[in-house]
Write a structure and sequence with these properties.
293 residues; YmcC-like fold; two-stranded antiparallel ribbon; 2 helices
């Protein structure tokens, strides 16, 4: 189901133009109202057919709680070590390609330099197109320096006691991240744990600015928790698990080093892209449902 979901996400994105921390333990004395099953290598919750609460995939989350907002600074660093951002390109008709790089000294009111994740309630809009959708809904907002979001994108995250797996931002410039390992941590949360995953990706994700290909490719992902360390962030020093991951296919290799904390989620995401460029995201704000954190 994840593969079918993944393909449909592309349509929905256009439609919407749109660390040392221990995971909280499940109380064994409390009966869960779901079982865990494996879909394409990822553990997901499966509920009885009579359980139709649209918040059923979110209510037990301890990291991606409903209403939580994670805001990140980001930067694109070219293979020649130049720092770039991006802005609208109204001269291009195709919405997904209607953006262009701008250098750091050309940032203006239309330049995107932050991205936020908001955890949404319910299963809309995904359930309209996928009746058995089984992920927590998240909204990606792409922000200018004034905090305005010219466009948003809907996506999903899977969180349970076995793993946390998340779609990265994938609108406009961020489509480049489709070829990288997705943010993903799997229990037990301890140094040395390793796992793998695969995903088929269509050529619709190609772009002349990084890579084009014909037909489908299959990314083979490998993940390993390599360290646990305290890192400096805008929120102070945070204990994180470090996850090193790679993705390999017939068109090349990409990488992701992610830093995970059970309260703050993926605190840093450092990508090495298919063209040798880098995308870095750093958490700068974390707000709970009542915006009191």
């Amino acid at each position: 189901m994840l593969k079918a979901t993944h393909i449909l996400i592309l349509f929905l994105l256009v439609l919407f133009a749109s660390c040392e921390s221990t995971p909280k333990k499940i109380d064994k004395e409390i009966d869960k109202d779901y079982i865990l099953i494996t879909e394409d290598g990822i553990s997901v919750e499966k509920f009885d057919s009579t359980h139709v609460d649209q918040n059923r995939f979110t209510k037990n989350n301890t990291t991606f709680k409903e209403g939580t907002i994670f805001t990140y600074d980001f930067e694109h660093i070219t293979s020649t070590n130049d720092t770039l951002f991006f802005t609208w390109d109204e001269a291009v008709e195709d919405w997904k390609f209607a953006w262009k790089f701008v250098p750091i000294d050309s940032i203006d009111k239309n330049t995107i330099n932050k991205v936020s994740i908001t955890v949404k309630a319910g299963l809309e809009p995904m359930i309209q197109h996928i009746p058995d959708y089984n992920q927590t809904i998240i909204q990606y907002s792409y922000l200018t320096q004034n905090g305005i979001a010219p466009f948003n994108g809907a996506s999903g995250v899977i969180e349970n006691e076995a793993n946390i797996w998340m779609h990265p931002p994938r609108n406009k410039y961020f489509r480049i991240l489709e070829l990288n390992p997705f943010p993903y941590i799997k229990a037990p949360y301890k140094v040395g744990n390793l796992w793998d995953w695969t995903l088929v990706i269509g050529d619709g994700w190609g772009d002349d600015r990084w890579k084009v290909w014909e037909g489908q490719i299959e990314n083979q992902y490998n993940y390993k928790i390599t360290d646990k360390r305290k890192i400096k962030t805008a929120l102070g020093k945070i204990d994180c698990f470090v996850i090193e991951s790679t993705a390999k296919s017939r068109i090349g290799e990409t990488k992701l080093t992610s830093y995970f904390n059970s309260e703050y989620g993926f605190v840093k995401l450092n990508y090495i892209n298919i063209d040798g460029s880098r995308t870095n995201l750093k958490l700068i704000q974390h707000l709970g449902k009542e915006n009191d954190q």
